[in-house]
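Handout, page 2. Input:
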Amino acid sequence: MMNFFEKSKAVLFKFWNKSEKSSDDEQSNDIDTTRFIVLDTETTGFDYTNDRILCIGAIILQNNTIPIHDSFEVFIQQEHYDQATAKIHGILKEFVIDRPTELDALQQFLAFIGDSIIIAHHTTFDITMINRALERNGLPELKNKTLDTAVLYKKTLLVSHLLERKDHYSLDELADKFDISKKDRHTAMGDAYITAIVFLKIINKLREKKPLTLKQLFK
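Output:
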């Protein structure tokens, strides 16, 4: 008989086969009706090999609304811990809640996101950390399409040699630019929410220039 670990892996592989097939299907080109998942991870550091995810926060964005009651947040049980980064994310090693294992957390997360398009700020970091966690648990990488608000923001800027364009824009900078509260900054759910509002602001600015389709966001 399969043990719990083997059963969990079997369930996830079944999910991935279904997800990979659905991602190949032609998606709606309407931004408003598309189901986006805006996410953020809080980690022990920035090393893809040695650091670990402490928390994943994710919210749904669809039809220009954010149903906060239907959100996802999981704090993950980890052996690796860095006291220095705790000053940023505030997650203590002795955090008194029942934290699932990394595999359990991934299973919950995958069930929540389905084949939705993922949005994050500096997406590469969050997706790479999640993919490394999947790899550690013998699972394939995410198949979801992704959008990066740091990249999308540049599409709103005027192209002129008279204006300076930065290579990177932080979430703090964009929150200030769009007058978004940073009250819950550096929590996974707080940063996911800020990123979702930033995305909506970017979409509105791009629509001021011309009609916008989902396909154009990926160009």
